[in-house]
Amino acid sequence: MSLHSTLKPELIVKTVNTLEGRIEERFPDSSLRKVCHELAEVSEQMVERSAWIGKPLLWLRGITWAICVGIVAVTVLTFFALGVSTEDFSSLQSSPDRLSTVVTLTEAAINDVLLIGAAIFFIFTIEKRYKRARALKALHELRSIAHIIDMHQLTKDPHRIMAKRLFTGEGLSPKLNMTPFQLRRYLDYCSEMLALTGKIAAVYVQQFDDAVAIGSASELETLTSGLSGKIWQKILILESYKPSEDDQENRIVT
What we know:
This protein is mainly α. It folds into two domains: 14-53 and 130-243, Glutathione S-transferase Yfyf (Class Pi), Chain A, domain 2, CATH 1.20.1050; 58-124. The chain contains ten helices and no strands. It starts with 8 loop residues before the first helix and ends with a helix.
């Protein structure tokens, strides 16, 4: 894979940190800033994790090869130790049931070969399954963050600004003390965080050729794209909103 066609983890970390600073400037006391800070920490861990997943584990490969060679050696030694002698072959040829005996021995040999092959395959895939477990754990962490981001924008309904008289925020109803401009920026930040979450997921699998991990990362990117699409629907509603004169006078420019 070309270096120009790969995501650079360091640049993603820098982008997330910049986004956290932008949120802190505009919404310093918001819980969204805390979520972005958590995303920044995860992105910093991603640099080390993705490098570990992408590199071969030489010590584990050495152990794997040693075990496989040991299995083959033990199998060959067992075959010679329990093998049929020349006299046994002569008696087998003169036996009236030699055909059924040959079939039985052949079937047993095939079963042994299949079992040994399955054992060797299982051992050879230990490294990939070990890395897969680490990758899936990291992707599950990102999936949780994506849902938390979605929870933060869930009650940020532009209609609560467009029809303030209908949405007074009394009782258990959510209160939305934002101007249209502030709400737009808040939703933009949520959308950017979701996009960066998907990019972090892509970094984990760009150097790890595993169908399960790649499928999980693709599902996460689909999830973040879908959640971001809902946010942009709200943004489009805000774009069509024309504030009244009273709203313009009370508008807080930040």
